Amino acid sequence: MYFHGGLGYDSVQTGVALLAYTLPTLVMPPVGEKLSLRYHPGFVIPAGLSLIGAGFLLMALGSHSLQPGWWILPGCIIAGVGLGLTNTPVANTITAAVSSERAGMASGTDMSARMTSLAFSIALMGLVLVEGVATHLSEALAVADGDALRQFAEKISAGDMAALDRQALLPQADVAAGTLQAALLSGFGWVMAYGAGSALILAAISLLLFSPWKAREAPDSALTLREIR
Fold it and tell me: How confident is the model at residue 177 (pLDDT cuts 50, 70, 90)?
């Protein structure tokens, strides 16, 4: 939606742009595993989450620039690298934290937590997107926030850029075509800022919970991931 409706990319350009995010997630997991064996998952996982946050922060800054594509694509690459570094160490750490007979239970719990948080985040990001679009429209059109503006913002957030042709939703406002695109870019700027903040907060929490420096001070107190393997 962002590439197609906000940046005006066609289907091919959008697909190629999305590769900037998806390819690193396929390439980096082996690197993340090697780094976790060499150092500690308590360092690698927060580092990966920090990269995700940095990537989304770059995207958020780019959404306010005149050439957002120059910011978005590097941000996608950085976030994809961070996700690739994080996924494998997380899965390995969860299964290694329990006895071998309970590894399947731990893996199932991990997957359930991922799916639950994914569903929650999709709904929350949708809300953030609509709020961002509605706020931009309210300021750009000098229209008070109300049901009509909210419906208009929801259509734009859903990628319905033809909503301008159904001007009846906001008969009192003179809406220019570029306003809808700017509103969508602004809304996704809110989403990217939310993504950046969430990932960086989770990075800090994971660093505190894992306390990898304590594990390095007492290496004999527990089996390392290398020893378990």
Answer: low
Sign of CA dihedral 90, 91, 94, 100: negative
Per-residue H/E/C for the chain: CHHHHHCCCCHHHHHHHHHHHHHHHHHCHHHHHHHHHHCCHHHHHHHHHHHHHHHHHHHHHHCCCCCCHHHHHHHHHHHHHHHHHHHHHHHHHHHHCCCHHHHHHHHHHHHHHHHHHHHHHHHHHHHHHHHHHHHHHHHHHCCCCCHHHHHHHHHHHCCCHHHHHCHHHCCCCCCCHHHHHHHHHHHHHHHHHHHHHHHHHHHHHHHHHHCHHHHHHCHHHCCCHHHHC
What pLDDT score was predicted for residue 166?
53
- Full-model pTM: 0.79
- The tens digit of pLDDT for each residue in 103-128 reads 788 888 888 888 998 899 999 999 99
